[in-house]
Give the backbone structure.
Amino acid sequence: MKNSIVVLDFGSQYAQLLARRVREQGVYSELFPHDAPAAEVMALRPKGFILSGGPASVYAPGAPQIPPYVLESGLPVLGVCYGMQALTHALGGTVNPAPQREYGPATLEVLRPNPLLPEGRSPVWMSHGDRIERLPEGFVVLARTANSPIAAMGDLRRRYFGVQFHPEVQHTPRGGEILRRFAVEICGAAPDWTPENIITESAARVRAQVGDEPVLAAVSGGVDSTVAAALVHRAVGERLTAVFVDTGLLRAGERGQVEKAFREALGARLVVVNAAEAFLDALQGVTDPEAKRRIIGEKFIRIFEREARRLGQPRFLVQGTIYPDVVESRAPERANAHRIKSHHNVGGLPEKMDFELVEPLRYLFKDEVRAVGEALGLPRAMVWRQPFPGPGLAVRCLGEVTAERLAKLRAADAIFTHALEAAGLLGRRGSAVSQAFAVLLPVKSVGVMGDRRTYQETLVLRAVTTDDFMTADWARLPADLLAEVSRRIVNEVAGINRVVYDITTKPPATIEWE
Ligand code: XMP
């Protein structure tokens, strides 16, 4: 990579965010564990290093240290929080516990003009227990806060910098500018990481991998699988066949959307497998959530394998793996070890299939996947689609999954989500609501319609706001919107006489109900 910045991960929960923020400045950045082999890191031919924060104390036995090749490379280095302390320690300065931990907002006061920090005072986010007591030789203090006399330091000759605060978090509003100054001005990395360049580069990589052979893609209609297939289509054209399995567990209009996107917008070959009956048969009488997921996952794989055979068993299969998945699988101790739901590979494909994987999104963050999708000409509604679980409506149709109950759920879900979209709250860049859907409960209650008693099922509305789907808050939707949605569902969807709104956060609840 011609213009790139390496982020070395010392265990900070924000390490990924550092790479993402650098890329937002248009400079490619990749994350490596702090002890990754030097050859692997240097193969990228980076223009500079950022050392992330981390939970350790540099003077504790066994604390992770800066690997020698970083300082031997002669490239600029920016240490963030722990990274700054590790830099200080490595270069002969002193780090000690601070008189008190500093956590939260602070005002940064820049003390002298320098290439890293814009002049003046600005809010920054602090989170540290140790601090720099004595600077290493060649360094000067660049900025301070009320509690940190050395909030930023620099050796302008060697182009080494350290900041005690976190430029990568939103609470440091000028953080993006600081990272841009480091990457572009100090390291001299040209900001050429644009969607067009990403597409050109990924397409070339795909072509080099697959040569003249045919490629298969399983598309679910989700953002990642769709953009991955579209990118491969750009690379290999009609040698790509996309397969879409209609499980009968999809939302209203979804199949049509996928057909339109692939056939009309991309002009790609799409095979649609109508498997609704097979899935319903397999789910008959099943009410246990994990059993539903298992049955759907297995069925999906069997159907997909059959299709692949029918299509002449291509060697290559497109997979929509994105960068956060790659990073998490490298650091399994950080991934959520306790299995709450068997998410993975449900409605996806097992790792051990007889395919060689083509992963064109392997180095992209979600925002970049979306930007690439837009640049490839995919419909906006698809690119900004909210997440949808692999097992589909089956895990939102609590109790037994039947065609009749699915139809009710689908109709109510469409009323709710369309109302949110019409109000500008869902399904576009920067929408207030991250995910919203309906859940049908096998709980009947008494109602009255006209003069007649009803005894019908209950529908739950669920809408959440979240950054990462690991934690979530329930969306404070306007009461009038909820009233209108409730009125319409009870009037228009036969068999539902009560609508409730889920006001539970995650944790302790999960976003989905099963
Ligand atoms: P939970 O319910 O665990 O969901 O809070 C977190 C996010 O994951 C989505 N989800 C799934 N995604 N396959 C997927 O690809 C699945 O089986 C699955 N189950 C849940 C869920 O919609 C939410 O966005």
About this structure: The mean pLDDT is 94. Residues 341, 343, 346-347, 387, 389-391, 435, 469, 506, 510-512 surround xanthosine-5'-monophosphate (CB under 6 Å). The chain has 15 helices and 18 strands.
